[in-house]
Structure prediction request, 277 residues.
Amino acid sequence: MSDPLDALEKSIGTLRRAIRDAAAAGDTERAGELRMQLRRAERAWDALVDTGEPAPPPPSPAPVARGSQLPAREHVHRALMLLGAPAAPKLIVGVHEAFFPGELSASKLSSLRRDEERSYRSSPGARPYYLCPALAHDLLTPVRALITISTWPLERRVMGPLSPRVDFLTSAISIAEAVHTAAGSTGEGPSPEALRLLWRFAVNIPDAMSKDASGHDGALDPQQVVLAARAELDVHAYADRATRTAAARQARKSLGGDEQLFGAPSQGVTYLRSARA
Prediction:
């Protein structure tokens, strides 16, 4: 027979994870219900520890938070919307694990990108959005290592020489703001995965971490990360925007609708070079 304390502790852990997932998904009603269950479980645990009397049966494990059964493309869409910039599969998976319920693996993303293009070509515009590659600013060919959303303007989906750094800083600001929001919206605070993700951004941004920070995730100040990222972003943003705007203008002139989403074919490279000359 299982130990009642062990059963309660397992239930408490399950409830805490479910609260975090519901808060990240913006389901405040569900989060409130789960918090009441958590308080009952914690009171039962306290009673059992203090008196040694058998505790009431622990609450049933919380149902999977709403949204965890969404298709993979919806998980990717949510992660990209949070980042606000083109991203590699590894980062998308990291953001999903840090802020959203459900499972998403990098292996799913490679087949997902091919499926999105096939779906578009078989029935253009049938979906409200498509996941598509970023476009190289010079040749307008697909940058297959980076995923974007079709509803974003071309200027955001094109990658120039400074774009990787600009997008890194943009994403760092979004992650820091999400961590700050999580800290204020739930008693559980941001998840360890979210703090580790923010730390990976912060260590690559000058002045994003306190001088006396030991490097532990919890020592980070999200607001300091935001300020440091914005300060560097101001240095690069103008030049990057000019490159992206020019490339987007060329794409609208030279490419068809499907190519503006999924990139120019390799045989079109020579044409694009001559068009720019």
